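Researcher: Next entry in the queue.
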Amino acid sequence: MKLNLFSCVFILTSFFLFGQNEQTEKISKSINTDLSAANKNFEKGINSFDLKSCLDNAKKAYEFVVPAYNALQKDNCQKAADLIYEMKSEIEAAMRMDEHEHAKMYLAKAQKLIPEAFYEHEVCMANGTGDLAIAELNQKQRLLEQQQKELEMQRSKIKDQLAKQQLAEQKLIKKRFITKNTEALEKTVQALNKSLEACDCNKPIEKDSKNFKALNTKSLDEIKLYFLEITKQTTKTYMATLDECDD
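Model: Structure for this entry, 247 residues:
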């Protein structure tokens, strides 16, 4: 009878511990899911193009951070909970901003707390399961992934800046080329007309009426070809006018 009673107590205790571990695992997964979702909204808010979009993503991130904070307090993971509380404060500060750049700045500060919060949460969970080494490895992996993401963002920004710089340089080169050739063409027409006038040939060459501003939309090669052709045409017109005057 004592053996049966002991067996029943053991079975009930096992079921209780199993149920408790299962519940803890569910809460842990829920926290990880909430923090991952918050991180995605941080990313969207930081990369937003206007204040409204930034604040909308801040609000969504906040909705995931609050339940994660409450769950961590229940798990007695104080260090992780403190980090989430700090993260929550940064989001609240972002949502009070009326300037886009300031709101993004606070969201960036909140996002930087994500890897450490993951780490402290895993350490807290591992202390009860003996998986501290695994938790540390996972944290290192997350830190490396975060660093890789930051490097990719920096690379993308530098690439965009270089592209804008090259475009600006190309525009400047085209502008200078158009100005230089326009002035040269005008001087050529004036010189040819003086030559015709000196020959008592009162048939001046008309200047090209093309809108030179439209050339800005063309490539540099197309612009060079245009001025080459118009110079040839001006010369032909001059020679033809001389022939007419000679007759």
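Model: The first helix runs from residue 2 to 46.
Researcher: Noted, moving on.
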